Amino acid sequence: MSLVQKSLKDLSTAFQAGEITSREITEAFIAEIEARDSEINAFVTTTFDLAREMADASDSRYNNDTLLSDLDGMPVTLKDVVCTAGVKTTASSNILKDFVPPYNATVWQKLKDAGAVLLGKVNTDEFTMGVSTETSAFGVTKNPHDLTKVSGGSSGGSAAAVAANFCVASIGTDTGGSIRQPAHFCGCTGLKVSYGRVSRWGTIPMASSLDSVGCLAKTAEDCAMVLEVIAGRDVKDSTTPPESVPKYTECLEQPLKGLRIGIPQEYFIEGIDDEIVSVVDSTKAILENLGAKVVDVSLPHTKYGIAAYYIIAPSEISANLSRYDGIRYGSAVEGNSLEEIYTQTREQGFGDEVKRRILIGTYALSAGYYDAYYRKAQKVRTLVKQDFDNAFEEVDALLAPIFPTTAFEVGRDPDPLRDYIEDILTIPANLAGICGVAVPIGKSKAGLPIGVQFLCKAFAEDRALNIAHQIEQTLS
């Protein structure tokens, strides 16, 4: 196994044992990126010179016995919505193509303070709006398992970077499945945290009441290592509660005997691939062999989740993106009047999907429609959350498919409505604010990865990661 194929845990252990330097690890990943990213297109911006400086600093700390954490010296990437002081942050949009933040997002500051090494910023659907990275202004990110397929979205660059062995872990965001779906497509582990578990400060927002910052890595153990660093209260983000941060890596080995795992019947929708269902069935068998009891549960309002989400999310998008006018934020386009500058800046700066969601959201929030649409959608959201609350009174976790199919082809016929409906299996968790982890289980006959998701109640990431780790250990 080459260096770049090793897990974060294995590389960290080897580094701390003095078997290899951070600079050697970093150079191995840089070489892999330079050799292969031209065909995958995971990166928007690389920071190789900075990475070498950070790696050298880690090696110096090792030599002085002052390592900062288990992530010290480990090369990571960031989805290009995470602001980085002095490093371009674009949200994969033309309107921010030249934006260089003067500050670090809290999630990156925590990683930096832990000694992590930044290899660069990775691709995303524009402002995280999409399911395939095809809405990115900088081209689609292809699936490392099959270059004719997409890597997923919106954290497709993060998933591809992990799957292609370009980094040990990548920070992504999940607003309606944007970590779990690309993890499923690319065959890596993806952690969607509870709302507020990780600070969103300094991360360019899509829909503020739905966004969560999480990570993708090779294993659940690697995700646990990252979460121990990035989780916790942040005075800059009032949505982060004063919940203590468990030692997630110490929770992984708990046996699953006696756990009750529910399978929501509403997640087996019409049109779901038989291979997806088969993988869920095989995961059920593994859980039962590990001593867990698997039962059927019902989440009756699941079918309304899509409708509620695609009113709430565009409404918040409309509000969040109103600042990009070329005056306060964004690259301005010249015009003969202020109105013309606004119009031309947004016309040329935003892509079609972003415009579509702004229009939907602006309509839903307009006078005469707010009560009819937005307020009603929030009531449905409450019902979706109550479904999960009721389920978690009976079970410790939920096992469910992530997406109706495996990774689809690059350039398939555009159909926004189809793309929205396909999110039906991931969106409810965001509406409820609960946590979940995507775990690679097997492959299709065509050789494409297939994963499942384990969903747990809010702030039960320790349980979700424990289940994921035990499954991965069984499969390894």
Tell me about this structure:
- The protein is α/β, with parallel strands linked by helices and 476 residues long.
- Helix content is 39%, strand content 14%.
- The chain has 15 helices and 13 strands.
- The protein has helices spanning 8-16, 22-40, 48-63, 106-113, 156-163, 180-186, 220-230, 274-289, 305-320, 338-349, 352-365, 370-391, 416-421, 427-432, 461-475; strands at residues 43-46, 75-79, 117-122, 142-143, 146-150, 169-173, 189-192, 213-217, 260-264, 293-297, 397-401, 435-443, 449-456.
- The strands form two sheets. An eleven-stranded mixed β-sheet has the order 1-3-2-6-8-7-12-13-11-9-10, sandwiched between helices. The chain has a two-stranded antiparallel sheet with strand order 4-5.
- Helix 2 (22-40) runs antiparallel to helix 3, helix 5 (156-163) runs parallel beside helix 6 (180-186) and helix 7 runs antiparallel to helix 15.
- The longest helix is centred in the last third of the chain and has 22 residues, at 370-391.
